[in-house]
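Subgroup meeting minutes
Present: P.N., E.W., G.H.
Scribe: E.W.

1. P.N. recapped why we're keeping a running log of single-chain structure predictions: easier to compare across weeks, and new members can see raw inputs and outputs side by side.
2. G.H. added today's entry (198 aa).
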Amino acid sequence: MSDNHHQQNKHVAEINPENTILKAIDIIINDDLKLNILYLNGFKSKLNDSKKEILQSYGNLTAPYVDHHNEENIYLKYANIVINEKIDLIIGSSMGGALGFLLSSNFNIPALLFNPAVPYYDGELIPTQKVTAFQKCVIGNLDTIILPSNTLSFLRENNSPNISIKVLNDLAHQIPLTVFEKEIDIFMKELFEMKKSI
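Output recorded in log:
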C-alpha cells in the first residue's frame, strides 16, 4: 500500500466525522441547503442528460468523466474531488461504483452503487477502519459483465455494518432510467428514515 494512501486516510476523521450521514440527511430535508453529490460513471460510459437531471433535483452535482482505462492515480484524483467539493453523497455505476465504494468507505460518506465492479478493483485500497456511513449496492441478477456472484462474494468478505444489498432479478448491467430514478428515490427515503430512527 502506498504512502499516499496512508496519508489520504489520515484526513478521513477530520473531513468526514461519524455524523456525516446525519449531515447528509439534514441537507436532504432542508430546502435552504443543497446536497453535494459526486457521480462516478462506468467504463467508457457517460451520464446522460435525463439521469443528470434526476441527480440535480437532489443537490449540487459533480460528475466529471472518469477515464478508468487511461487516468493515472485515479483514486487520489477523486479523493481530492471529495475533499475539495465537500462531497456529501456518492453515486456510481460499474467501475464508477467500485471507485465509489472505496471513496465512500475511506471517507465515511453515504453511497448508492449500481452493479459495482468491486471484485476487479485495486484491493490495496480496501479500507481497514470501521465504516459507519450507509452504503447500498443495487445488483442486477442478469449482469453478464460484472457477475453478481463475484460481487456478492466480495461484499460478504469486505462487509461494513451499514451496507445494504438489493438484487434485482430482471436487471442486467445497464441501468435503465426508470430503475435509476426509482432506486435513487428509495435510497434518499432510506436516508431520511435512518435520520428519524436515530
